[in-house]
Specification:
alpha+beta; Phosphorylase Kinase, domain 1; seven-stranded mixed sheet; three-stranded antiparallel sheet; 18 strands; about 25% strand
């Protein structure tokens, strides 16, 4: 079996030659490992691939390093088999914290895929610790093999929050038009809502546009959004716990939380915070209610709950929506204190936008 190694970049794939393989391994966007090389990383990926029955019989495997994050390192495997070409993704963690998080992600994704059978999270196939013979001491990676969402790309809001820049290394980075941008936010809201469990108030959390959690496929104006991970699936410490644990009140706070968090990104995913423009609110509201209607049809929501929620929300003034949302700031202060002031600065304007969007929505149309 032949193996080839590449690095992904906006300028195109770069083949990993001897000099590049000897370079230090990136453990974050800016930090190198003191011992490991890029060659060690590819060696670990090769060993992991050779252990996979799914790849048995491959004539060649192309391994491409895609990106390095704070916790995980992402690579793609393209295997040429006798009857097909198969592309998969490998997420790797080197730090102990990264390994704990990756194992947790694997379990949550696997359980959600089995229990809900929704098409938005990747299928996960294998998890294994890998320590090639070349590794010094007790160093090892934890690696996860998963489905690769072909031609799906990371994206981020422009500085003014008006547009989405799609990071497409194949066809070129490009701005999405208004219709496509609306569709991205609508689908994100619909995806997160469909994973929300009404009886228990459990939900996928945390997630963040800045982390690249949602990826986008754009083809001739058609948009498809997928979610790359599920870091946790839990009930949040939100204000509804003071309201008798009513499923309707819990859903109300999930909705308010969703409309705020969908507006938050960072420039290029790492720099200053960005607040999505007004379009994000009707897009999120539309996606949320579309998902609730679909969930009602699957008997995941009691009859009448959608109408009750919408009636409750529409009865609120912008000031009342802002007042209900303010307790969320305490939660955000615990979760991401560096972002809470930025969110608070936009809350009044957001509540006005939300009030207008709720007046326009017709979920049964």
């Amino acid at each position: 079996m032949n193996f080839d190694y590449f690095l992904s970049s906006p300028q195109g794939d770069r083949k990993a030659d001897t000099a590049l393989l000897a370079s230090p391994f990136l453990i974050s966007l800016t930090e190198h490992h003191s011992i490991l090389t890029l060659g060690d990383y590819f060696s670990a990926l090769k060993k992991f691939a050779l252990n996979r029955p799914k790849l048995t019989g491959a004539e060649s495997i192309r391994i491409r390093s895609e990106k390095h994050g704070a916790l995980y390192h992402i690579a793609s495997l393209t295997a040429t088999l006798p009857e097909q070409t198969l592309k998969l993704t490998v997420s790797s963690a080197l730090s102990e914290n990264g390994k704990i998080c990756l194992a947790r992600d694997f379990n949550h994704i696997d359980q959600l895929n089995k229990s809900l059978n929704l098409p938005f999270l990747p299928a996960v196939y294998a998890i294994e610790p890998i320590a090639p013979e070349t590794f010094p001491g007790n160093l090892s990676f934890l690696m996860v093999l998963a489905e690769w969402f072909d031609d799906h790309h990371e994206w981020h809001l422009t500085k003014n929050g008006q547009e989405i820049m799609l990071w497409d290394h194949v066809r070129g980075n490009r701005l999405l038009d208004q219709t496509a941008t609306f569709a991205v936010f609508r689908q994100i809201a619909a995806i997160l809502t469909q994973y929300y469990d009404v009886p228990s108030a459990r939900q996928i959390h945390p997630w963040h546009h800045a982390a690249g959690d949602f990826i986008v496929n754009e083809e001739d104006g058609d948009i498809r959004v997928r979610l790359t991970t599920a870091r946790d699936y839990c009930r949040l410490s939100l204000p509804f716990r003071d309201s008798g644990d009513s499923p309707l009140i819990a859903l109300l706070f999930f909705f308010l939380h969703l409309t705020i968090r969908t507006r938050l990104d960072r420039v290029e995913g790492v720099d200053a915070p960005v607040w999505a423009a007004e379009f994000a609110v009707p897009a999120t509201v539309t996606g949320f209610f579309e998902a609730l209607i679909a969930m009602t049809g699957r008997n995941q929501i009691p009859p009448g709950m959608v109408d009750s929620l919408l009636t409750m929300l529409r009865s609120c003034t912008p000031a009342e929506l802002a007042a209900m949302s303010k307790p969320l700031l305490n939660f955000y202060n615990e979760e991401s204190p560096h972002e809470v002031a930025f969110i608070a600065d936009h809350l009044e304007e957001h509540s006005t936008n939300l009030h207008a969007a709720l007046k326009m929505i017709n979920p049964n149309a």
